[in-house]
Amino acid sequence: MMIGRIERIEVEPGVHLAVEVPQPSSKPVVMFSNSIGASMAMWDEVVSRISNQVRVLRYDTRGHGQSDVPAGPYTIEQLGNDALAILDALNIQRVVFCGLSLGGLMGLWIGANGGPRVAGLVLANTAPNFPPPSLWRERAATVRANGMAPWLRPHSIAGSPSHFSSIIRSELKSSAR
Fold it and tell me: Domain AB hydrolase-1: where (predicted)?
């Protein structure tokens, strides 16, 4: 479910991220950041419920979805600066930042470093760090090799099969890159 238009925004020389740009409005902006192995599509259901109340700004994190995949590894500071670069490119002064897992970790960095640009934070299923690094390297390798299917629980899918089908289709497209 797209609310705005998709643009590729350069966050550093040669690195472009896919960004759903919100429609102009006086409404507050909520910026959504995806979890590891996911794309901005993971927010579709939330966006459908709140888009009449706020301006939605979401993007595919570096290395995810339709964003560029420059050589890694990436740091949280680098990913946080990507989000701030998006705000700069769109001339957006203030946002509520909402992140899940990896997106939440980026939100912690943005909360500590974003200053007055941060109107609020919504951080879910996250922590200030994710040790041990080997666990996340293995998980990232699994997602690259098999997509998100190994991480989806059957009882979650049963509750909303069409929603999960659209997420899986989106993630398959993104993992094919």
Answer: 28-140
Is residue 132 reached through a cis peptide bond, with omega within 30 degrees of 0 on the bond before it?
Answer: yes
For the four alpha carbons of 128, 132, 133 and 138, in that order, the dihedral sign comes to: negative
Q: What is the SS3 assignment for 135?
A: helix
Can you list the domains of the chain with their CATH numbers?
5-131 (3.40.50.1820)
Phi and psi, residue 97, nearest 5° = -100, 125
**Are the C-beta atoms of 110 and 83 separated by less than 8 Å?**
yes
- This prediction's pTM: 0.79
Contact 65, 134 (CB under 8 A): no
**What's the pLDDT at 24?**
87
| Strand 5-12 to 29-33 pairing | unpaired
Residues 128-146: tens digit of each pLDDT: 876 677 877 787 788 778 7
